[in-house]
């Protein structure tokens, strides 16, 4: 009878439905092969079942790749953002060690490096431009700023969400969106940063 061949075709067609089609597609291929081996009527239906089932099986890896690629990119961006924040945290520790020893803020980044802060901490893994340093700093001075005042941040465009990692005076690091970053309390910092970044 044509029953096996028809079942192979139906299961092969169901196998073309994304995400639910793996088992029906496999069953369609198997039933199509069995129908051909038994030399039952409906050879064309059996072949169609095998072909549609095979197409359904081949679609599965393609669909998985299409689903996973965006999430892999997002995971990589989050990992790079975390490394960037860890770098700023390391820089903040070097900043506070210098501050405790000399009782004033370091005059520049090179001073932090010469005092023992790892030079690798000054490289943001998300940096897109070729700069000598991947972070902007507003250092120097003897007045102690408020604890939440910005000391350093990464440059614009480093993170796909448009935000920046920011090191605050008291050592905390946070990721801020563009609107959170440009608050009125940080006018001097953002003005100096805009000048450093250019147009």
Automatic annotation (TrEMBL):
<dbReference type="InterPro" id="IPR025241">
    <property type="entry name" value="DUF4190"/>
</dbReference>
<dbReference type="Pfam" id="PF13828">
    <property type="entry name" value="DUF4190"/>
</dbReference>
<keyword id="KW-0472">Membrane</keyword>
<feature type="transmembrane region" description="Helical">
    <location>
        <begin position="6"/>
        <end position="37"/>
    </location>
</feature>
<keyword id="KW-1133">Transmembrane helix</keyword>
<feature type="domain" description="DUF4190">
    <location>
        <begin position="4"/>
        <end position="60"/>
    </location>
</feature>
<protein>
    <recommendedName>
        <fullName>DUF4190 domain-containing protein</fullName>
    </recommendedName>
</protein>
<keyword id="KW-0812">Transmembrane</keyword>
<feature type="transmembrane region" description="Helical">
    <location>
        <begin position="44"/>
        <end position="69"/>
    </location>
</feature>
């Amino acid at each position: 009878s044509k029953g096996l061949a028809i079942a192979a075709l139906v299961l092969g067609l169901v196998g073309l439905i994304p995400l639910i089609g793996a088992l029906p597609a496999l069953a369609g291929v198997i039933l199509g092969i069995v129908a051909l081996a038994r030399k039952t009527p409906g050879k064309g239906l059996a072949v169609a079942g095998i072909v549609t089932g095979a197409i359904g099986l081949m679609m599965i890896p393609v669909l998985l790749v299409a689903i996973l690629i965006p999430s892999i990119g997002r995971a990589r961006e989050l990992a790079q953002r975390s490394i960037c924040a860890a770098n700023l945290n390391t820089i903040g520790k070097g900043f506070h060690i210098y501050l405790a020893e000399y009782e004033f803020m370091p005059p520049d980044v090179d001073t932090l490096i010469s005092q023992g802060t790892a030079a690798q901490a000054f490289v943001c893994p998300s940096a897109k431009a070729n700069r000598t340093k991947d972070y902007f700093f507003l250092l120097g001075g003897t007045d102690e700023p408020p604890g939440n005042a910005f000391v350093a941040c990464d440059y614009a465009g480093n993170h796909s969400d448009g935000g920046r990692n920011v090191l605050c005076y008291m050592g905390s690091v946070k990721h801020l969106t563009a609107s959170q970053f440009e608050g009125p309390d940080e006018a001097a910092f953002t003005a100096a940063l805009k000048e450093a970044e250019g147009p």
